[in-house]
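hi!! sorry for the late reply, been swamped w classes. u asked for the two structures so here they r. pasted raw, havent cleaned anything up. first the sequence of the first protein and right below it the tokens
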Amino acid sequence: MNSRPELKLDWCSFAAAKYAVENWHYSKCMPGGKRVQVGVWEGGVFVGAIIYGTGACPQIANPFGVGRQEAAELVRVAMRSHSYEVSKCIAISLRLLRKLCPKLRVIVSYADPEQDHHGGIYQAGNWLYVGETKPIEWFVDTTTGKRIHTKTLKTGRRGLATKLKAQGKIESIYLTKLKYVMPLDAKMTQRLVKLKQPYPKRVRGDTSDTPADQAGEGGAVPTRTLSDG
């Protein structure tokens, strides 16, 4: 007999997703751009949000030979302690997304080795691993050790980054992420299988697909509404 609470996924408000990200995701930051938010409830209690969006890369669709409206990114999985596997929740959220956006053909997501993530939740959901991204420049404050996103200093302010580096106040680091894709139709599957690589192995501190993956504290019961934010 299943003793786990009833699982429910539905569209949730921007406020609910924002609460989940700020409390239960390591980034503590809502992604920009257009997005849709799927809430996760267990036994009527809100335990997290799964967010899809346009992503930070304008060329997200280019490697797949599809239009910009045919590709999206899974930008956040923010969940507190919960009973059901994250891969199961993502699979249900994908079904909701496909009904809302029937023209979508591929979903992209990334695992961050800097956070000791290897993509266990994607591997458990049979996503395809297609390799590491190209190294991206970030900056590190040499006094505090805090990382600074490239856009913070480079967007219209490249001279500032150069000046701070010359002063020894920041230094560059180059980071990569692990890229996973989920094809949404047979033709896209045939195309992407050719790019498939062996799954990366688990790294220190990473979980595979345990119910407590990306767990946090607290809870909320927001209204189940669709919001563009």
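now the second protein. again sequence first, tokens right under
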Amino acid sequence: MLTEKTVVLAKIETLAAYGTDAAPTNTENFIAAHNISVAPNTSWNDTQGQDCSMSPREGTLGRQYMDITFDYELQASLASPLTLPCGPLLQACGFAYDTSGVYTPYTTYPAEASSVTLWAYLDNQLWKSTGARGNVSFTFTAGEPVMLSFTFQGLYGGGFTDSTFPTTCTEFGGKPLVAINQALAWGSDAPEVESLSFSLNNELYARPTMDDARAYGIAGIDITKRNGDGSFNPLATTTADIAFLTAFAAGTATAISYVVGDAVGTVTFSLPKTQLMNISPGDRSGTRIFDFPFRLAQSAGNDEITITCAAAAA
């Protein structure tokens, strides 16, 4: 079997049908992912009873769920500029969507359409996981595609089945969107930045149960908390040019925004309130920089990261 032959499909689930296989297809639910990893997360029970031997006795399997991770180069939608091809994944990572093209964090969990069924083809092995929820980290690096790194936990489906690898996949996105030719705004300033990253930092909880028809001891995957943060690394400046030190010392909340796009569509990322957590001078090929970790905070509430999709300008 070839590792090159690896494909992920993702289809949103309704809350009423949580954990029920939504049966994604390669013609409707293909995700152009890479660095795909699929593994059962299994606990093991060593038998504790003692006998006349020094040798261990046979043990038993305990609770099981799935860990699924992959990376994804952000794309705009070819058919609908107000959605993202990775939209179902974002919704399962704590983002609500409205038809105006805006993704914002959910108010409460669980929420309608906040889980996905994931199918991962590893050549002719098909691994299925339902009820998957997770976290996504966004990374912007100058001149490179915007990278989304997904970490999911989902219900265990008994391992893999033999299944023919898909011969075609319907692509819903354009070329990867590159972090280039746009100004990053920190408040009213436009610092020169090489990289920016941030995440909601969802906490996931595989909820244990003794009463489980699937016989794997996990009732569902919950998002129980989030505490978003991020970092960026602008060229160092004097305080007279950009008042980083003043904002750090005062704990001032400052907005960060960045836009990526192409001829297909644009995607705007807005962080309405970020607070610098430290100020560390660094070096980039002989040039002085600042390394800034920051914490995300709410503005009106449930808005610490806003993603807005729009059609490209004519």
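hope this helps!! also noticed smth abt the second:
The chain has one domain: 6-43+64-311.
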